[in-house]
Specification:
Elements lengths: L2 E6 L6 H9 L5 H6 L3 E6 L5 H10 L4 E5 L24 E6 L2 H6 L4 H13 L3 E6 L4 H5 L11 E4 L13 H15 L4 E4 L7 H7 L2 E4 L6 H16 L2
Bound molecules: 2-phosphoglycolic acid.
């Protein structure tokens, strides 16, 4: 099973920075060989998805695309929303949904996030549902039993995001059990101050990591990918 490394750029980067990052991502056979055990997923800001996809295809990069959010509505009169219908000719395989920044700044509710999950699934986009402890049980109440096994869960303690205070990797085994008892989901991702120094410890317990800050500088990110790959050899 591959380990998931998810890069969420949030509202960072402009078009030339996106192009620079992707045009310099290593694609020589030796690097691709090393990165083989990783599923690398990139969530750029919406306006750059098309350019990102073009560069990924042109350079044969081992990178899948995700969106950072998705409208709960379909095609139609929903000004400012980006629907799954709008994305259908792009190769978007994942959607990060319910990130704590959206719950906090955009006041997204458990119900709205559940609607977004349903919309993503109906377009075969895999939802990566972000949760912190206060949402564990409340979010689950809005999700049907049939939907639960189709999710990836990203445990993202708000206090760990962008703070440099990552969760203790040992606590994650307990969190994993707790989440499994509610969601019966097998794929658990951890997010919050993951960096090259701690990524290996998280990959021992989880199926992947979600990165914000550590994904912005290409050199940091590539360093983290190689460290992550090395840590898999020891598993
Ligand atoms: P961070 O962000 O890696 O900058 O802590 C993680 C996240 O928001 O998922």
């Amino acid at each position: 099973m591959k380990k998931y490394i998810i890069a969420n750029w949030k509202s960072n980067k402009n078009l030339s920075e996106v192009a620079f990052w992707l045009n310099n991502f290593p694609n020589e056979p030796e690097s691709l060989q090393v990165l083989h055990g990783l599923e690398i997923i990139l969530a750029p800001p919406y306006p750059f998805l098309v350019s990102a996809q073009e560069i990924i295809e042109e350079r044969h990069l081992p990178i899948k695309l995700a969106v950072q959010d998705l409208s709960a509505f379909g095609k139609g009169a929903y000004t400012g929303e980006v629907s799954a219908f709008n994305l259908q000719d792009l190769d978007i395989q994942y959607a990060i949904l319910g990130h704590s920044e959206r719950r906090r700044f955009l006041k997204e509710s458990d119900q709205l996030i559940a609607d977004k999950i349903a919309e993503a699934l109906s377009w075969h986009i895999k939802p990566i549902l972000c949760l912190d402890k206060p949402n564990f049980a409340s979010q689950a109440r809005f999700l049907s039993r049939q939907i639960l096994p189709k999710l990836f869960l990203a445990y993202e303690p708000v206090t760990a995001i962008g703070s440099g205070q990552a969760e203790d990797a040992h606590n994650l085994s307990l969190i994993k059990k707790e989440l499994y008892s509610i969601y019966q989901v097998k794929t658990l991702i951890y997010g919050g101050s993951v960096n090259a120094a701690n990524v290996g410890s998280f990959l021992q317990v989880c199926d992947g990591v979600l990165l914000g800050g550590a994904s912005l500088e290409l050199s940091d990110f590539v360093n983290l990918l190689f460290t992550a790959s090395e840590s898999l050899i020891q598993l």
